[in-house]
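All the exercises in this workshop are built on plain-text protein records. A record pairs a protein's sequence with a compact description of its fold. The structure tokens are whole numbers drawn from a learned vocabulary of backbone shapes. Once this layout is familiar, the rest of the handout is easier to follow. An example says more than a description, so a record of this kind follows.
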Amino acid sequence: MIRECLKIIGTAHVSQNSVDEVRAAIFEDQPDVVAIELDRGRYQKLMNEKNGVVEDDQIHITKIIKENKVGVFLVTTILSYMQNKIGEDGDIKPGAEMVGAIEAAEEVGCKIALIDRDINITLQRVLNSMTTWEKMKFIYGLLGSVFSSEEEEIDIEELKEQSNIEQAMEYFKEVSPGAYNALVKERDAYLAKGILGIPEDRVIAVVGAGHKEGIINYLDNPETLPSYAELNGTEKKGGIPWLKIILALIPITFIVIFFLAWMNGINIEGDIEQFIVISMIMGFVGSIVSGSKLQSAIIGGLVAPLTIIHPLLAAGWFSGLAEAKYRKVRKQDINNLGKIESFRDLWNNNIIRILLVVVGTNIGVSIATLIILPSKVFIPLFMKIFGG
């Protein structure tokens, strides 16, 4: 059962009314602990902003790609932009209610408990739980929201109403049940475990309105709570990775054809040369057409033959890494995403430019792999092997 001295406040993350409600409750109840829906990283970021501490403005794209966190970075970037945009429209910064709770807790002399899961773990679990099709729909929907030209009036306080919360949650569940589970249900459990782990009696918990009902359900039924080990793992669940299998079959097929030709005594030196030259040209062309530096295009071209043979590598990663060395991405580039009104604005944003290079290089190599090489090299070679 929930402790009688526990109060859970459901907030909107960009609402001045939520800030006022949280502060008033803390001053009135004088709790022993204020539990807030933050992890250590987000808490430190909010405190740095509050205290005027200037953080490193550069986003290290090279490190993100090397650590295979591109998906997490993209989702974080788009969601951060959207929340900042809503905050600008309402003239309040995202997380203001959490800062208000922290300040009020300091003023009344009570402790602060950080009860949320690390955001990187949450987003990785979200991505791991989604199918490729769900990811495409999700990113498309987010980008549509970012670049939509329609200005729609948003009543932040209406978003906190239970009927609207339930409607939004049901839609999210329908779009991607796995992502809903990782982003909402698991965090309900994590936040509930954090609250249960507080030894003090009088507690105020400040959480997003969408989590309040789930937290209460878990607190009423603590035996249903999963362990922290279950909630923190980021290994992708088992299953048949059809996309990887298909991608792997393409280079395997190429290698088998080369091997069969060699076994049949066919001179394949010219075909191998064609394979290398076509791959390199298309990698270079795809990169340069997408607006890369010459150096990045050269790297994309050089690695193209190797990435075709290795299904888990992509030439665009290499050209993108090279491009990131020349185009320093800063947080301002994220903020400027919402100010893009023309092709010139798009072209001048370093995030967009690097992503274009990655995509452009991969498209060039894909054209070589799926269209040019089969027609110019592998089908003719196959016909020679079987006497066609």
Observations:
- Residues 151-165 have pLDDT under 50 and may be disordered.
